[in-house]
Design a protein that fits this description.
Order of helices and strands: HHEHEHEHEH
Largest sheet: 2 strands, antiparallel
Structural class: alpha+beta
Radius of gyration: 16 Å
Shape: globular
Number of helices: 6
Oligomer: single chain
Length: about 120
């Protein structure tokens, strides 16, 4: 999915708004440097917004989890250039899923958790 022309990309790079750094490369770097350091943490109120106890993932666990989600999304037909809508509260599944989608070369379209059927049907 190409959103900007080569000229626009060059201008954005010159202005410091664009780089070649990706989520995937940042994750790989963190996994290589500090695999057992905490990467993401659920809010203490997780049980109010999602099932399960609050948890945290290390960089290595986040890498494995995002790979598993990417595998499931690929099996469901998500490919490079797809746009995937997600509706998750601010819990560990949110960055895990966003990284998984990026890993496949797809785009993320996050929907606010307070939106319901009417809003989602209209936006989709």
């Amino acid at each position: 999915m190409k959103l900007f022309s080569e000229e626009e990309q060059l201008l954005l790079k010159e202005e410091g708004w664009w780089s070649d750094v990706t989520w995937r490369s940042l994750l790989a770097s963190a996994v290589a440097r500090v695999p057992e350091r905490t990467a993401v943490i659920d809010p203490f109120y997780r049980e109010n917004v999602m099932p399960g106890e609050p948890r945290e993932l290390t960089w290595a666990q986040l890498e494995r989890a995002s790979r598993a989600v990417a595998t499931s999304l690929a099996a469901a037909g998500v490919t490079r250039g797809s746009v995937v809508g997600i509706q998750l509260p601010n819990v560990v599944e949110l960055p895990t899923t966003m990284i998984a989608i990026a890993r496949l070369g797809a785009g993320v379209c996050p929907f606010p958790v307070q939106n319901r059927r009417h809003e989602l049907e209209t936006m989709c």
